[in-house]
């Protein structure tokens, strides 16, 4: 937390005079009240991304689907989705056959439950691209090795992705990033483990790639770490960002589970941005209850529009600090030493019944052009 310094009304007048004479900085600000018993989470920067996956994917061509593609499941009732890369050449589940290794064969979708053809998939509007179909392998087929094959006439060179989701499986890939966001020059750190019923499993093969919001990909190298693997990679590439979108680490593992080789694919998101500014010295709270403000110093290395968010705390009659309001203030700043003046809502302050001394806590600095949390 930044230190708070109270200054006199004379100093405030000088500051306001300087602000009036400065160039137009297009400042905008708003506040909303926080109830004293509210456990509102005021900072997103504490979030650490972690994901778990009970699914895997295979990239195949039309010829492979016509000949037969091997699928492995660890529990009955796997959900299967097939997507055509061109968005048109869907493989309809009513034209697909499935057979068990050394067992029965089921033709024309008879081994599936909940068949969803391409037209139904689009009609339901559930967000999948055109050319996508899906089905559930019937529970009575059990688990294990299957061969999936189509009699449909499709382009043998057409590209398809098969996604197998085992919602009831005990085997999952766990990915955890050490941070929610990274800046250029930082080291990406992500841990990967495969667990089955809480027990770590032996990973036989692991590979991955970083994918930017614009689709640019970068190879990564996993190294053994304890009972799992870890990526530690200096982030030196261009930030290559789309505002509001995240980078992802895509990971594919194959692990030995109960004598079987099980595949899992997962991805973990994080932000990756340029460090365009940093907080300066002490935050100063100035003025009286009717015109209370906070001056937040900012050191800028690249022109942009910056935003400061913070929670104003006041003192009750017993001397306890309690939250009053969350305030967001945005301003255009050029390179060099600058500041953002946060104006607190006088009505919210009066209605709170709290008074000086005040503190500004949970302060965040953001670059709105990147939609990035800098502090």
TrEMBL record:
Q: Where is the signal peptide?
A: none
| Entries under InterPro entries matching the protein | DUF4785_C (IPR048295), DUF4785_central (IPR048296), DUF4785_N (IPR031979)
Where are the coiled-coil regions? none
Source species, domain of life: Bacteria
Q: What is this protein called?
A: DUF4785 domain-containing protein
């Amino acid at each position: 937390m930044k230190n708070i310094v109270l200054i006199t009304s004379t100093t405030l007048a000088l500051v306001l005079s300087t602000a009036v004479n400065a160039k137009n900085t297009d400042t905008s600000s708003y506040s909303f009240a926080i109830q004293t018993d509210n456990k509102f989470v005021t900072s997103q920067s504490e979030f650490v991304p972690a994901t778990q996956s009970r699914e895997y994917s295979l990239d195949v061509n039309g010829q492979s689907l016509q000949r037969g593609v091997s699928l492995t499941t660890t529990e009955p009732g796997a959900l299967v989705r097939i997507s055509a890369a061109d968005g048109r050449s869907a493989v309809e589940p009513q034209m697909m056959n499935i057979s068990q290794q050394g067992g029965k064969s089921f033709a024309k979708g008879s081994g599936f439950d909940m068949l969803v053809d391409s037209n139904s998939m689009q009609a339901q509007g559930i967000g999948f691209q055109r050319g996508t179909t899906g089905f559930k392998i019937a529970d009575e087929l059990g688990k294990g090795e299957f061969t999936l094959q189509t009699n449909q006439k499709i382009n043998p060179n057409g590209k398809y992705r098969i996604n197998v989701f085992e919602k009831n499986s005990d085997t999952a890939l766990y990915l955890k990033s050490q941070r929610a966001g990274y800046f250029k020059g930082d080291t990406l750190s992500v841990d990967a483990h495969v667990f089955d019923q809480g027990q770590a499993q032996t990973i036989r093969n692991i590979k991955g790639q970083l994918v930017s919001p614009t689709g640019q990909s970068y190879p990564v190298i996993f190294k053994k770490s304890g009972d799992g693997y870890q990526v530690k990679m200096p982030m030196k590439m261009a930030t290559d960002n789309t505002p509001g979108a995240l980078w992802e680490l895509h990971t594919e593992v194959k692990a030995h589970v109960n004598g079987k080789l099980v595949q899992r694919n997962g991805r973990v998101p994080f932000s990756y941005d340029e460090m365009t500014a940093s907080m300066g010295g002490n935050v100063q709270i100035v003025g009286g209850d009717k015109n209370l403000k906070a001056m937040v110093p900012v050191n800028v290395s690249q022109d942009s529009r910056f935003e400061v968010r913070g929670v104003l705390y006041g003192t009750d009659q017993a001397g306890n600090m309690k939250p009053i309001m969350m305030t967001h203030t945005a301003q255009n700043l050029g390179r060099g030493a600058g500041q953002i003046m946060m104006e607190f809502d006088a009505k919210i302050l009066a209605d709170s019944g709290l008074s000086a001394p005040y503190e500004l806590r949970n302060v965040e600095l953001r670059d709105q052009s990147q939609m990035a949390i800098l502090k």
